[in-house]
Amino acid sequence: MNKKRWISIAVIVVLLVIYVQTDVISGGTNMGKLEKSLLPSEPSFTTGTYQEGTGKTIALINVNGTIQSGTDSLSSTDTYNHQIFLQEIEDAFTNPEIQAVVLAVDSPGGGVYESDEIYQKLISLKERYPKPLVVSMGTLAASGGYFISMPADEILATRDTLTGSIGVIMSTYNYSELAKKLGVEEIVFKSGKNKDIMNPMREATEEEKQIIQGIIDEYYGYFVDAVAKGRKMDRQAVIKVADGRVYTAMQAKSLGLIDQIGDLDGAIAEAAKMINESDPTVIQYQNETLFNLNRLFSMVSPQLDFLGIKQNLQDSAAPTVMYLYR
């Protein structure tokens, strides 16, 4: 985190302490006012100069962290914000000054829904605004991180990149034996026999396993189709390499999963070549949201959920279908 962000956080903390102290005197009205005034109604972004040039403009957009909605928190190390990212790619393609887009992906993947939302949006934007799209893979561009790369015209990965992991996963826990030892019994009232499917308090039935596997197989088919289309590969050839494993960059290149071994500068040079530009100006999209202020409020207000623990427990109780390397 840079110096400016630390200063911003310090200022907000000081203001928050002042408001909390005066909140007692004012009868509890200041916290509500502060939240309304400081919390942005819409996620936002800015652009900065990544590379100065005299020619056409190329946009650089980063995907860092797990591709999932609602993951931003005070304690999170991910910098990915799904809604902001969707706004950034929309802006990059609709902005007439931007001639090409470079997507820097460093992600283990994420939710099936979010990954497919990005994929579909990129496909749609490229159809309406035929700008070159080049993907630069970082340390890890796996599963959903690979999936969202499929609309690219060219994919580059460094020799140390791990990519691929073409597959789908959905998991839960089985707490039944632990519950017996602790003397805990769950009582469930349900409208149908499969209403509590993947209930962690009991063994899954064979029928339930078939139901879940059917869901996995369907989403897996979407992934395979996206790779076959994006990489111009035969579907059966994709299935042969799509067993969930990750590949090194050299392995991925030999299998046709990426195009070149190269770094971010190489990806930018490739995008410049596609627009016939030798000295491009590269702008980089930057996330303005420092952190979720709701998390900060929760730390100082006992009425609010401390660090989102309650919400996290609720989220973990709902199994999610993931394009995720794990």
UniProtKB/TrEMBL annotation:
Descriptive protein name: Signal peptidase
A Pfam family annotated for this UniProt entry: Peptidase_S49
Family label: Belongs to the peptidase S49 family.
Gene3D superfamilies on file: 2-enoyl-CoA Hydratase, Chain A, domain 1 (3.90.226.10)
CDD domains (alphabetical): S49_Sppa_N_C
Residue stretches making up the Peptidase S49 domain: 130-273
Biological classification of the source: Bacteria, Bacillati, Bacillota, Clostridia, Eubacteriales
Record keywords, A-Z: Hydrolase, Protease, Serine protease
